[in-house]
Amino acid sequence: MSRWTPSVCRFQPTCSHYAVQAIEKHGPWRGGWMALRRIGRCHPFHPGGYDPVR
């Protein structure tokens, strides 16, 4: 989505890139859960910043 929307993501890497990396590294179940948790942290009260897949 970041290709079509302005760059306003508060995280680095963006949530879509994070999701791809998490699924590639941890598989669809755990990686998908990690991506959902990351999206849940995307709100004005979370500072964001650098948050790599671990």
From TrEMBL:
Q: Which domain of life is it from?
A: Bacteria
| Residue ranges of coiled coil | none
Q: Which InterPro entries match?
A: Membr_insert_effic_factor_YidD (IPR002696)
Note the NCBIfam families from the entry: membrane protein insertion efficiency factor YidD (TIGR00278)
What name does UniProt use for this protein?
Membrane protein insertion efficiency factor YidD
Provenance organism? uncultured Armatimonadetes bacterium
